[in-house]
Design brief:
With 246 residues, the protein is of the alpha+beta class. Helices cover 32% and strands 28% of the residues. The strands form 3 sheets. Strands 1-2-3-4-7-10-11-12 form an 8-stranded antiparallel sheet. A two-stranded antiparallel ribbon has the order 5-6. A hairpin with a 2-residue loop joins β5 and β6. The longest helix is centred in the N-terminal third of the chain and has 18 residues.
C-alpha cells in the first residue's frame, strides 16, 4: 500500500508492504506530520516556532516537543563542533535541519506501534526503511545532483535510514555557522545511519563542514557518507560500500 501527500511543502511517501496495511494508519502518520509542520514551520506565522522567534512565548511555556527538538539541536551542535547550529545570523532559530528527520522517525514509530514490520516513510528523499520489501532489502537511489533524472548510486537498506543535504534543489541554503558563509565546496552529501533522525542531523552538519566532513564521519561510529563535489567527483567513507551490495 502506497500513499502520498504534500506536507511541509515537500512530497511525503509512505509504503507498507505488510498484508495487514490499513489506509487509516497511513493517514494517522500524515496527520502527525501536519501537526509537526504547524508547530515548527518558520514560514507559518501561527506556528509555535514563529511565536518563539517573535518572543511571544517564554521558555518555560515551550511545548514538550519543542523542548525536545531544541535539546537535540544543542546536542548536535556540541557533537559537531558548532557546525550544526539552529541560530541564524538574525538571532532567530530555525531547526529545519533536524525537524524533518525527527518527524520521519516519529512517523515510522507510529507504524511500528501498530505492529507493521515492513515499510518506509520518506519526506523529500530522506527515508527510514523498516524490514524488507517483499523479502529483499529496500532499494534506494541517490540522485545525480547535476542531472536529477539519473541515479549515481544505489544502496540496499533494511532497518536503516538515509538522508541527503545539498544545494542542487533549493540552491545554496546551508549556512556554515563556523565560517559564517554559505557552504559551497560540495553539492550533496548522503548519510546512512540507524534512523533518519541521526542521518538528517549529521547530513546537515557534514555538508556545512565541506570536504573535511568526511573525516568527521570516518571517526563517528554508526554513520557512513557519500559525498559529491562541485567538480563532479564523488567520495565515500570506508564503510559505505557495504550498502551498495544486495
Amino acid at each position: 500500500m502506497k500513499h502520498q501527500a504534500d506536507i511541509m511543502g515537500m512530497p511525503v511517501t509512505i509504503v507498507i508492504v505488510d498484508d495487514s496495511a490499513k489506509a487509516e494508519d497511513i493517514e494517522n502518520v500524515f496527520d502527525y506530520l501536519r501537526k509537526i509542520d504547524g508547530k515548527f514551520s518558520p514560514y507559518k506565522p501561527t506556528s509555535e516556532l514563529s511565536k518563539i522567534n517573535r518572543k511571544e512565548i517564554d521558555k518555560k511555556n515551550y511545548s514538550e516537543e519543542m523542548k525536545k527538538i531544541l535539546h537535540l539541536a544543542q546536542k548536535t551542535k556540541l557533537q559537531t563542533s558548532n557546525y550544526f547550529n539552529i541560530r541564524k545570523p538574525d538571532n532567530s532559530i530555525d531547526p529545519s535541519g533536524i525537524v524533518k528527520g525527527y518527524a520521519i522517525h516519529e512517523g515510522a514509530n507510529i507504524l511500528r506501534e501498530k505492529g507493521y514490520k515492513n515499510f518506509y516513510v520518506e519526506i523529500a528523499g530522506d527515508i527510514e526503511v523498516v524490514g524488507l520489501n517483499n523479502k529483499e532489502k529496500w532499494k534506494v537511489g541517490i540522485e545525480n545532483p547535476f542531472n536529477r533524472q539519473e541515479i549515481v548510486k544505489v544502496v540496499y537498506l533494511s532497518n536503516k535510514s538515509i538522508a541527503t543535504s545539498g544545494t542542487y534543489i533549493r540552491g545554496t541554503h546551508i549556512y556554515n555557522p563556523v565560517t559564517q558563509k554559505n557552504s559551497d565546496e560540495i553539492v550533496s552529501v548522503s548519510i546512512i545511519a540507524d534512523n533518519v533522525y541521526e542521518a538528517d542531523r549529521f547530513a546537515t552538519a557534514v555538508f556545512a563542514m565541506g570536504k573535511k566532513g568526511m573525516e568527521f564521519v570516518e571517526k563517528k561510529k554508526g554513520i557512513e557518507a557519500y559525498m559529491i563535489l562541485k567538480n563532479k567527483t564523488a567520495t565515500m567513507t570506508s564503510g559505505f560500500e557495504k550498502y551498495t551490495k544486495i
